[in-house]
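Quick one, tokens below:
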């Protein structure tokens, strides 16, 4: 994932501190507070990594079995594959049959909807997409809509109409990427609109796009896309800050948290994901199973430091 990438030499100049929560975020959590224990999901962006063979996949694992092994380590996947190719019910059923109960697929809307049609006249293709992912059944988590950087506030009404048209019985999150949405004159209007439609707002934590760390929840659930920098020391301190913020949200009444690990070089995602899970279990009293590495060589010091 190259979004928000900066040179390693410049990482020391980045202010990685998490902004304070927006007042609306606190209000939403307070209003929704329930006695149920929040659900927390941690996963990666893809399972098809040959360089994870010998790391979290056993030696000589075939590509056809990657997902089966991935699902033994993580309880969710940010499914970017559906962005590039329209999912069919048959394909989705094949994926679903390789995971266990409780595992969550979080598919991205296909680019035909978001990047080619740009939400205009997209009802038919969206219906086909939703029909395909519905085959996940109980394994379907939130679906996320990633808008291109050139989808600006000029398209406010288009976004409003599309979100309002979506079925109400599915969970959807939206990721805004144009910097213009985060300008003061547009921020409150668009996030209020997203909240009105009961759509979630994605928080993307990337080094070079601190505006996307907006801390404005629009539902009592969070969808965090964390972009690390190859196990740089700041990756760990950033995770520590996120764990404390999630702990605060859990105390305030959040219902679900999805935390997806990205790296500019995805080979390192399992290591940092394991650290995320360890810290959540330690500080937030979750009981998420940790990824198990084929060999502890090269990983032991990371988690005992």
């Amino acid at each position: 994932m190259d979004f928000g990438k900066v040179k390693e030499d410049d990482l020391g100049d980045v202010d990685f501190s998490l902004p304070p929560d927006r007042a609306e975020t606190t209000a939403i959590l307070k209003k929704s507070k329930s006695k149920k224990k929040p659900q927390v999901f941690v996963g990666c962006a893809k399972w098809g990594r040959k360089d994870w063979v010998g790391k979290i996949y056993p030696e000589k694992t075939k590509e056809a079995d990657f997902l089966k092994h991935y699902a033994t380590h993580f309880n969710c996947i940010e499914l970017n594959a559906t962005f590039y190719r329209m999912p069919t019910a048959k394909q989705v059923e094949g994926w679903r049959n390789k995971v266990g109960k409780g595992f969550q697929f979080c598919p991205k809307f296909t680019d035909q909807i978001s990047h080619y049609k740009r939400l205009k006249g997209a009802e038919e293709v969206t219906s086909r997409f939703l029909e395909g992912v519905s085959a996940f059944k109980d394994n379907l988590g939130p679906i996320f809509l990633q808008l291109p950087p050139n989808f600006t506030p000029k398209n406010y009404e288009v976004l409003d109409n599309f979100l309002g048209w979506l079925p109400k019985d599915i969970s959807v999150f939206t990721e805004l990427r144009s910097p213009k949405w985060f300008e003061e004159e547009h921020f409150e209007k668009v996030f209020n609109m997203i909240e009105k439609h009961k759509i979630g707002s994605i928080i993307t934590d990337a080094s070079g796009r601190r505006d996307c760390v907006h801390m404005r929840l629009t539902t009592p659930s969070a969808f965090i896309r964390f972009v690390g920098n190859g196990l740089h020391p700041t990756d760990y301190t950033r995770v520590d800050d996120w764990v404390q913020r999630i702990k605060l949200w859990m105390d305030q009444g959040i219902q679900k948290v999805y935390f997806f690990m990205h790296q500019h070089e995805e080979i390192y995602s399992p290591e940092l994901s394991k650290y995320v899970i360890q810290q959540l279990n330690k500080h937030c009293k979750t009981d998420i199973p940790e990824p198990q590495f084929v060999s502890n060589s090269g990983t032991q010091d990371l988690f005992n430091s």
